[in-house]
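Hypothesis: this fold can be encoded by more than one sequence.
Test: take the structure tokens below, design a sequence, compare later.
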């Protein structure tokens, strides 16, 4: 009976170095996108959603908010006319980053909404309030739904 012994060797090729490089670049590139779920809301417990934050080559942050089951603001107590998305920055500043429009079909029968914006500020937390004015500079209403800190 003949025994075969196979050995496989690549000159100057170190698997450990290649794996370390792949892991480093994999972690580097995936760290450019962060996804954070919204916490359960005491104001609208059925609301669910998440926030994705991506950093582009210019160091700007793209913020994408996806929500489902967020009741129309007119159904809150007290009733409000719109939802405003807020960002807490890494410098502890609160910024109004936009309005989720609910009266023109943004919400479907399952109460879905999406919001997207770009900012040069670094977000550390995203939250939503219900307001009567889109141009408010400070949150007037209690927080409807929020993320934890990134």
């Amino acid at each position: 009976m003949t025994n075969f012994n196979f050995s496989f060797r690549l000159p100057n090729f170190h698997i450990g170095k290649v794996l370390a490089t792949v892991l480093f670049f994999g972690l580097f590139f995936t760290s450019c996108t962060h996804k954070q779920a919204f916490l359960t809301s005491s104001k609208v417990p059925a609301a669910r959603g998440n926030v994705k934050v991506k950093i582009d080559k210019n160091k700007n942050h793209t913020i994408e908010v996806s929500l489902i089951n967020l009741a129309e603001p007119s159904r809150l107590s007290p009733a409000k006319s719109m939802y405003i998305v807020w960002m807490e920055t890494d410098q502890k500043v609160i910024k109004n980053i936009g309005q989720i429009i609910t009266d023109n079909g943004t919400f479907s029968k399952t109460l879905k909404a999406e919001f997207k914006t770009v900012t040069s500020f670094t977000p550390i937390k995203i939250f939503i309030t219900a307001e009567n004015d889109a141009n408010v500079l400070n949150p007037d209403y209690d927080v409807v739904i929020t993320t934890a800190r990134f």
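Residues 49 and 67 are 4 Å apart (CA to CA). The chain has a mean pLDDT of 82.
Hypothesis status: open.
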